[in-house]
Amino acid sequence: MIPRLYIVDDEAPARSRMKTLLSDIAAECPHELAGEADSAQRALEGVAGVVPDIVLLDVQMPGMTGIELASHFMKNPAPPAIIFVTAYDEFALKAFEVHALDYLLKPVRASRLAEAIRRAAAMRATQAASIADAAKSMQGGRQNFSVQERGRVLLVPVRDVIYLKAELKYVTLRTRSQEYLIEESLTSIEEELGDVFVRVHRKALVARDAIVGVERGTLAVDGEGEGERAQESWQVILRDLDERLPISRRQWPAVKALVK
Length: 260
Prior knowledge:
The protein has two domains: about 140 residues, Response regulator (Rossmann fold, 3-Layer(aba) Sandwich); about 120 residues, CATH 2.40.50.1020. About 30% of the residues lie in helices and about 35% in strands. It contains seven helices and 15 strands. A five-stranded parallel beta sheet has the order 2-1-3-4-5, sandwiched between helices. The chain has a five-stranded antiparallel beta sheet with strand order 10-9-8-12-11. The protein is elongated, with a radius of gyration of 30 Å.
């Protein structure tokens, strides 16, 4: 990861010296200069636009100090790493109270600057990896269904669910050994876990890996005032269950594709 840097200092000569130092250490400490600002207010706008990894920040500036500016950055969901660069050592404690990663005193040595940037870049890379891992783990949706049963809350792993069937106000959640009732809609479950379950008809979702085949069967349907009548239908053969679920004409192509 090549870190993106942003310089904030109200003195133009100080910004110029910092850019010279950065140029001197470019070979040993690769980086990209994303921008610079001569005041805290301009820095707030600039940093929001370019989203740097590291801000090299002066402490004493008119209007708003570097400490105040850093506290604003810390309110962001993913704030930049802060390295204070200042001629005053008395602000070090306050600097670390706003989670500064380092505190460099002017005149800054090139080796010390390189060390601080490498450490900040390593920290940012670790944070990015953690965020990526968290996002990856969430891509498949939740890992459990929450079920209320006899005054207790149980977690039923999604991987154990064979089907979900809508009945009146509730949805029946079926595992190999047991049934549970949950107060969720099939539509919301399908939207969240569509990669795990496939809809076989308007009132049922079946785990994709629980479908072992299909077979012809009969389905009882409303005969429009004449009671129920039998209608031939394809049905899902389920892993570990003798029960069969009918497949609607609308959902037949999706189910058929799974058993080819």
